[in-house]
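== Folding task for one protein ==

=== Format: two labelled lines per protein ===

==== Paired sequence and structure tokens ====
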Amino acid sequence: MKNKIGKLIRKARKEKGLTLQQVADLCAVSNSMVSNWERGMNIPAGDVLIRLAKKLGFIDALLEDDPSDEEIVQQEMNDLKDLANSVNSKLDALCDEFMPSAKHNNTLGKIRDIEKKILKLEKQLQDISSLKEKINKMEQHISISNNRDIVMNAGSEKKM
């Protein structure tokens, strides 16, 4: 935001043919303060900024919405994806031209990757089954302990 305001001040000042000192005089500040504004080091106070924007004619530009950082990042991501797709297409074309069997090798690689994933899933299923067995044993143990406590409590109540 500071940078946007600084750029607007500098652009408007230059378009009006004003020096830093002339803008400083309009705002009753030093020319080094105006320089700091233009470089984005800080920004004028709200009332000074509005007065300056009106006098230099950039009030409308000041009020315009900037794309959010999220929108900028999303656009850059989309540009990178497009670039990656373009590079992949060119690589595929080169592979087809110079190594026709490369696609076959790529298919074998994908099959091997799928096989590895299946083996990993099978291992996870075995782990889940083992956990289920342990849970069942723990539930049985808890049930036996609870039944024992109930019997013991019932026996002590009879004695009273």
Summary: The mean pLDDT is 77. Residues 76 and 82 are 10 Å apart (CA to CA).
